[in-house]
Amino acid sequence: AERAGLVDADYLETDHLEEREEGHDELGPGRDVVEHEGKLRSVPAEANFIGLNKADCGLTPIACEVWKDLIFINLDPKPAQSLRDYLGGLATYGDDYPFDELDACVSLVVPEVRCNWKIFMDAFQELYHINVLHRQTLKTTYGGRSNPHGDPLYFRTYGPHRSLSFGFNVEHPVGPVEQMSQRFANDLTSSAAADLNRAKATPQAQRAGLNPSNAPNWAFDINTIFPNTLWLAGHGAFNIHRFWPITAHTTRYEASIYNPRPKRASERFARELRFGLFRDTVVEDVLNTELCQQALLSGAKQQVYLQTGEISIRHHLHAIDRYVRGEAAHV
Fold this sequence. Notes:
Distance between the termini: 29 Å
Number of strands: 16
Strand content: 25-35%
Radius of gyration: 23 Å
Strand order of the largest sheet: 10-16-15-14-13-12-11
């Protein structure tokens, strides 16, 4: 809920199911009425409830903080640290990123991916698979002779969180439709040399803290917020990816792609073209990771080897292992 410029959160739960109407929440079948401030306003047949104190029956608050227009909740009633302390150096890295300038959002949701959440999240933390799995969609955008295996340009950890950078293939051949799209919009799938040169050294990019290694062919930074959120930060666009465990073998995937609000039809066309490309690459990732899940469940192999280019996955598994062992996920 947002009131007077403040944001807070509550469990929207009583003993009844939820129904909503303008100005308040009705939690029925008994239709208990809860104001948006979380206070219990009225109860049908209230006199029949002996000793009822409505002041004690409002919605239970959830710890909630905001960083850079992103809302975080913590189900711990008394969090051991503030959001800022939890994010640590990752917050410092992103403090100057212009989130508020990228206010047009397109969302993609896959309600159920038939694999463990970590497996699907791993697919977004490395480019080792790009040249094979995405050869019909991304083609050689991030590969090429100079970096055939999609090795990262930069890697850094912030406690359980991490940041890594990837680069474009400057020799990637750009087709006519892609060229037209790049005239009107920046995005994480851009690869033309002119777009590269605009993005890598502009005052906006420097102010945003992007490209920490100052790589000349920088494409975007992937920032992981432990445990299940990825923030892909580029010049003129960013993505937020969330991986929600449903069961040990199924995952809900949510992606939000942010760009500047289109001012002309040409900019809208460019954005829709890029989103279509993103959607198609996600479909390829879904199919592949579901096959990976089947292979793991077969038990044929008892170990998985990770190479140096998959360092982000290695760190993610290390952070999860520490958390499962009861070691605090603090920075």
